[in-house]
């Protein structure tokens, strides 16, 4: 009955609609990229006067604001919007359940689940009981309003927020949370067609490269890797100032990681511990601690990685953490060894460092003139008589910021010879 009333409201539009189905696929957290993708899909479907928008959904949840904007797009759509929790093993929990409830039509495959809509804060911040109650009541009221708008089970809507209740596909169908049970897209569209909606050509609408990039950034393991690589780049730049490339790479990686952390439910205590671990690693390069700073850095790194994503629906792979930890230790050991080798070399600076450098005569001169050495212009005294512009010279000595230079003679085979 509930679905018939939804279709009757859209009947005038369905009569003139083309029998084209726009299919969207969304797997991963709900964020700005997912919102933009669905918004674009709805817009293009309306422009094409499609008969149905099908969203195949698999999500652990996401940002409240992005979810509400997606629900608003669905509620304002003049084309039936069908959300299908698919494939088997997928889920539409938290923000995904709101999208499921907001849809004109809803379906789930066997082995999928929905629910668990209790609001959580990003960053692991402690909030007052009063604020928790406000957030809970707001989420409950919104999900109830969606359930009533689509004539779905309001009791489950309340329990999903208040008690984090969940349902499998069969339970959701029995409790009127969804309209269809189907194990494939073909089976689902066949059932939808039997209810009076035109089903013809299927048009798959993938994410654009921009949407795909931003959406992938909401994957916890990728965000964690970007954070680690970003710290590598910054440490390299601090260790060798002026290298530039590691600094640019590190800054870009950290920026992308911080973008991800604005969407993911990251625990900032874990993030701070990871930053502190890299600080200890860097100090190990500057201070002789006989390995104590390195040991402390390793402990903080693994502890911070464990705490970084506290929610079980946004897991960080233990394998990723282990590989990143080993790579980090090897990275700093290599830098330390290179630093020790560099310290073993004789350092030449100031006047001593200028001896035997090759330069070029800037202008003709016989006694004193200008030469270009090591990227700088120097006053020079010739020890080889007259020198022509462009000739190569070698620095013999330096006194009072004046170079004494000699001509580099050319051998018969064209090689330079002092």
From TrEMBL:
It comes from the Bacteria. SUPFAM superfamilies: ClpP/crotonase (SSF52096), NfeD domain-like (SSF141322). It is a multi-pass membrane protein. Keywords: Membrane, Transmembrane, Transmembrane helix. The chain crosses the membrane at residues 266-283, 290-309, 321-340. The keyword Membrane applies. It is found in: Membrane. CDD domains: Clp_protease_NfeD_1. Its main location: membrane. Pfam families: NfeD, NfeD1b_N, NfeD_membrane. GO terms for cellular component: membrane. Residues 221-336 form the NfeD integral membrane domain. Signal peptide: none annotated. Residues 21-178 form the NfeD1b N-terminal domain. Residues 352-407 form the NfeD-like C-terminal domain. PANTHER family: INNER MEMBRANE PROTEIN YBBJ, NODULATION COMPETITIVENESS PROTEIN NFED. This is Nodulation protein NfeD. The lineage of its organism: Bacteria, Bacteria division WOR-3.
């Amino acid at each position: 009955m509930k679905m018939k009333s939804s279709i009757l409201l859209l009947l005038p539009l369905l009569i003139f609609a083309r029998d084209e189905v726009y299919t969207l696929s969304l797997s991963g957290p709900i964020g700005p990229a997912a919102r933009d993708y669905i918004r674009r899909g709805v817009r293009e479907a309306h422009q094409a006067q499609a008969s149905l928008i099908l969203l195949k959904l698999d999500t652990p949840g996401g940002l409240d604001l992005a979810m509400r904007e997606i629900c608003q797009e669905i509620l304002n759509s003049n084309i039936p919007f069908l959300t299908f929790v698919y494939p088997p093993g997928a889920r539409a929990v938290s923000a995904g359940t709101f999208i499921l409830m907001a849809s004109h039509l809803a379906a789930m495959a066997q082995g999928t689940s929905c629910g668990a809509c209790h609001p959580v804060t990003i960053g692991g911040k402690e909030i007052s009981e009063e604020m928790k109650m406000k957030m809970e009541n707001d989420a409950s009221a919104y999900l109830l309003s969606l359930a009533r708008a689509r004539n779905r089970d309001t009791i489950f809507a309340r329990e999903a927020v208040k008690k984090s209740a969940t349902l499998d596909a069969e339970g959701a169908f029995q409790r009127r949370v969804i309209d269809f049970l189907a194990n494939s897209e073909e089976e689902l569209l066949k059932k939808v067609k039997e209810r009076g909606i035109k089903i013809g050509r299927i048009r798959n609408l993938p994410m654009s490269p921009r949407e795909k990039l931003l959406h992938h950034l909401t994957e916890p393991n990728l965000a964690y890797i970007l954070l680690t690589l970003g710290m590598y780049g910054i440490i390299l730049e601090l260790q060798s100032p002026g290298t530039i490339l590691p600094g640019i790479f590190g800054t870009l990686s950290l920026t992308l990681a911080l973008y991800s952390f604005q969407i993911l439910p990251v625990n900032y205590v874990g993030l701070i511990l990871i930053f502190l671990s890299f600080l200890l690693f860097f100090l190990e390069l500057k201070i002789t601690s006989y390995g104590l700073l390195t040991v402390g850095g390793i402990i903080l790194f693994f502890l911070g990685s464990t705490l970084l994503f506290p929610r079980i629906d946004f897991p960080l792979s233990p394998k990723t953490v282990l590989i990143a930890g080993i790579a980090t230790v090897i990275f700093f050991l290599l830098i330390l060894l290179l630093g020790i080798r560099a310290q073993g070399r004789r350092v030449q600076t100031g006047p001593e460092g200028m001896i035997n450098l090759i330069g070029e005569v800037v202008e003709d001169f016989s006694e004193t003139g200008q030469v270009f050495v090591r990227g700088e212009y120097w006053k020079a005294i010739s020890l080889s008589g007259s020198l022509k512009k462009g000739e190569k010279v070698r620095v013999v000595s330096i006194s009072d910021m004046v170079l004494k230079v000699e001509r580099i003679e050319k051998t018969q085979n064209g090689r330079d010879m002092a």
